Amino acid sequence: MSSIQQELVNIVGEDYASDRREELFTYSKDLGTSQPLWPEYVVAPKTTDELQAVVRLANETKTPIVPLGGGLTLAGLALPQKGGIIIDLKRMDKILEVNEQGRYIVVEAGISHGKITSYLKKNHPNLMHSEPGAPPAATVGGNLAIHGQGDLAHPYGFNTDMVNGLEVVLPTGDIARFGSCAVGSGWYTMHPLPDIGLFLGWNGATGIITKVSLKLYPCKKFRENNMFVVENEEFVPDVLFEISHLGMAEDLIATSSEIPPMMNRLHYISIINTGDSEEELEFKRHMTFDVQLAKYIRSGVGGIVSLYDERTRPQVSKSADWKKGGGFEYVGAIVPVSFYPECYRRGSEISGRHFIPYTVLGRVIGSCHSMMFSWSYAFNRADDATVKHARDALHETDELVMEINGTIWKPAIFGQKLMLERMDPGALRLMKEVKKILDPNGIMNPGNWEVD
């Protein structure tokens, strides 16, 4: 047993630290197209104290560390680019506080979104948080590390906009808190303290989030999915603008896909309306279709496809594995809503060149302030040719995002390099200085957001 492995065992116990190859294999790959990258150790701390001890050990030995949440980013962001220690945070999953009147919840960052949803449904049915549209195993910390978005993006914004406070273990092993919790005033706001935006969106390259306060929102008793369809993609931005103007929808998504055939070359706009009574839902339907979208219906531009109860909240990650080979990966982009038509056309062309049925989706963020647009590429894990086609399509799409002046969302290493090449020189210098100050030994998820 190596000295590092023995020290990890001393910290967390023999059951939660390993250097055995059969267990490291699980952590050497994710669900996307990235080539396997092997860690030398994996450790699963249960407490902040244990996590601090692991980080201090890594800092002293200059061993790279990679924090891991649910492992669902698909883009290789939690693969060990330079070996070292994978820190699996899923045992740090406590719910610490729920303030019903203040509408916030304080949790450990390794908790899954599914666990939060289940807990709130059982104990606080009038409250909900923003789910990322990923499988329920996706973790809070992992979602924040990539500037995640979720099903309350319209009208509330990114999930990182819903943070009231953070506790972070720094690369030195020290703890820092941000928000009202930093001055001992509780976990209810990030304002009006000085902004220290050093951890959200950094993929764990500056520190490891351990505790989070998230805003909660009213959870209505009834939910329904109202589907509106248009044939011409040029009308999608206008329709989304009209619906968002009402300010009534809980979620707003436009999608088109080659499979199933009924969706091919059509654009389905999912309008999630909620209410505490049938009368409230009926009013929202009336305002949406009889008032706001009436001109599109009368002119034949679009029409209502269906109105049905939506018992579960939408998981957009379910929409793309048409190869039935167990794999898909996507490029996400944050773009203006007006970019939807070009994104759809160019994306379907890339899919066609690589023999992949196209699947595109745009989720409105804010009141049409922007859109998370994604291009999904399915592949068969047992067929190297389809994996290569998907990987090439992903790289083409990263380049497309830069060409149309979008911003790549949760970019893999290839996409990060494209963005860094275009980054403002002043921002690059500041990123480099921040990394140097916080992580002088370069141990935190090295390879991610590396500035030469």
TrEMBL record:
InterPro entries: FAD-bd_oxidored_4_C, FAD-bd_PCMH, FAD-bd_PCMH-like_sf, FAD-bd_PCMH_sub2, FAD-linked_Oxase-like_C, Oxid_FAD_bind_N, Vanillyl_alc_oxidase_C-sub2. GO terms for molecular function: D-lactate dehydrogenase (cytochrome) activity; D-lactate dehydrogenase (NAD+) activity; FAD binding. Keywords: FAD, Flavoprotein, Oxidoreductase. Its cofactor is FAD. Residues 34-219 form the FAD-binding PCMH-type domain. GO terms for biological process: lactate catabolic process. Coiled coil: none annotated. Gene3D superfamilies: 3.30.465.10, Vanillyl-alcohol Oxidase, Chain A, domain 4. PROSITE patterns: FAD_PCMH. This is FAD linked oxidase domain protein. It comes from Desulfatibacillum aliphaticivorans. The lineage of its organism: Bacteria, Pseudomonadati, Thermodesulfobacteriota, Desulfobacteria, Desulfobacterales.
